[in-house]
Amino acid sequence: MAGISLAIGKGFSVRNFWHDVRDSESTFFVYVGETARYLLAAPPSPLDKEHKVRCMFGNGLRPDVWLPFRERFGVPEVGEFFDSSEGMFSLFVWNRGDYSVDCVGHHGALLRFAMRNTLVPVAINHETNEIVRDPKTGFAKRNSYNEGGEILVKLADESLFPGYWNNPEATKKMFDRDVFKKGDLYYRSGDALKRTDDGRWIFMDRLGDTYRWKSENVSTAEVAEAVGRYSGIFEAIVYGVEVPWHEGRAGCAALTIASERRENFDWRGLATHARKQLPGYAVPVFVRVLDGEVGRAASHNNKQDKVALRAEGVDPSKKGSKAAGGEEDKIYWLSPKSDKYVRFEDRDWRNLVGGTARL
Hints:
Luciferase, domain 3, 6-stranded antiparallel sheet, ANL_N_sf, 3 domains
């Protein structure tokens, strides 16, 4: 209808992707979730830059993948958007250099001023996922944009949100009233972001993914980005797991490691890297090495699927009970006084259950 040719593949395939791009002579392609990471994990080819693509458009391009993908495949421009199906909170950035590589949107001075009371970050209790409110006034605790938090969207009335089909209860849960003053109405985005002083929006985490450990909030996106930059790691899926006799959740990173590195992977080097890049409470206590190729723990739309991994936790006897193909996964752990990750066995789990081992 707009005079633009569109080529649609039968399905996403790492093996066929660039063949389809070349055959169709595409100048743009659309990505979602970890698509770029899976393409980057394929063996290098002399044809990597033999295409006409000048821009990739989509959402979910992680900072640890952005530059390596651009350098290897020579795609100079990225149109990264941040949005929800409901469309109540939308951001976009058109990236052509290094300035906006790590962000999901950008607001200039005028937009920052205009939206200062429309898009508002608030503090969240990550155990209940409820907005933190002042016990005296009952109003929400507004965070600074630099600190970030769950983004609330101010609404004039409920009709602005179309709601979920035939599900009024789910629709109702998306609203919160009397947030900053009596009678006001806000839509809960369910996503935590922060904004820099110059207007770059940085994705922090999805509500429900952030966990508490050592009385601190841990952003799974921040940890995944840091761990994912370590040599030999294609993908890091980070989540919190329950551990007997410990409050909160301990961090676990499910890793896909390059096949040629798995046998002699440097577990001491990973521990050193994580402790340099992250505060102590955010360093993953556990690591789960996923057996198989990159993307094994992906949902149908190439997004990381943490639900099954989180449900299994780190009890070795539960491997594969929820996560398909997980029976052969290996679990490692890092004790507070250790300088490297070591295998986590059945006896170690029994010690945690019995209370004789502490983290």
